[in-house]
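Shall we go through a protein fold together, starting from nothing but its sequence? Please make up or recall a protein chain and show it to me in full. Go ahead whenever you are ready, and we will take it from there.
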Amino acid sequence: MIVGVPVKKPTRIVPVRLAAAAVAAMTLLAACSSSGAESSPTPSASPSVSASAAPSASPSPSPSAAPSITPATDLSAIEVTDADTPEIKVPTPWAIASTTTKVLRPATGQQKLTKDSVVTLNYVGVNGRTGEIFDSSYAKGTPATMSLAQVVAGFRLGLDGQTVGSRVLIGMPSSDGYPDGNGTTIEAGDSLLFVVDILSANFTDVVGEAQPPVEGMPTVTLDADGKPVVAFDKSKPAPADLQTATLVKGPGAAVADDSVIQVRYRSWVWATGDEFEDGWAPQSGRLGGLIEGWKQGLKGQTAGSRVLLVVPPALAYPEGRSTSPTLQPGQTLVYVIDILDVQNS
């Protein structure tokens, strides 16, 4: 089991229902996991070393490798079975000079990971010195969701640039893993091996085909910073019912009732045209904890999409909001929402 460091301070989606329990449900996806993942260990940095502080991969042999082991320069000696649950065969004791990745199963898609991606994956970790498994999401039966910004350096370096849908083998020296060990199954100087199935990842922008505009809906353009702005005739009565338009149709998973979604969004007050919220940064929450207009308008939408919602007060904040950002009672709201990721249990 790998013990993780504290994650970043959560950031919640603002348009929550007024119930306090719903507010508590909002978390930054980059600092959370899919269902059950809070209790599932992931390849996060140990308490004694953070991922950001760990040295980056070096072409020279790891100085912390055990003296009796000559570090390898590639992964040619490692065998991995081509099964749904892979097995790693290691000629122990084994070490590697620098973090190295080998693609075992190429992907057919095009989506690439970055060092800041939030990914859902299955993995098994093996100690190169002993050949023993020290962690496995396959064994737990639940994929792990994590931010690559929060994991050990070798895991982040090994997955950077890899394609969603692929299976990869990563070997990392102690300097990119746990230089001081993890206190249990990993000792100082141990090189590590991971086999990783990359199941999905968040999008950093909308991806897909632009959809025809919906007559009568506000028009959406982008400002100089690439952020959406809306135009509509605020002198006209606000729509009485929820209005939804898909501006860009993404290729990812569809939003369901219990999905955890990662989004960025902006919103405006229909009556004045003034901006209500500027949430144009990735953040997440469970759909069930959001306002009714989002629950109805986003269900069935897909990751990678941009969605326009006109939400009547009954489905948003009929009594207004007294907390920041404040809102007078009875206000219709206009939202532009980018759905960057969808996690379904």
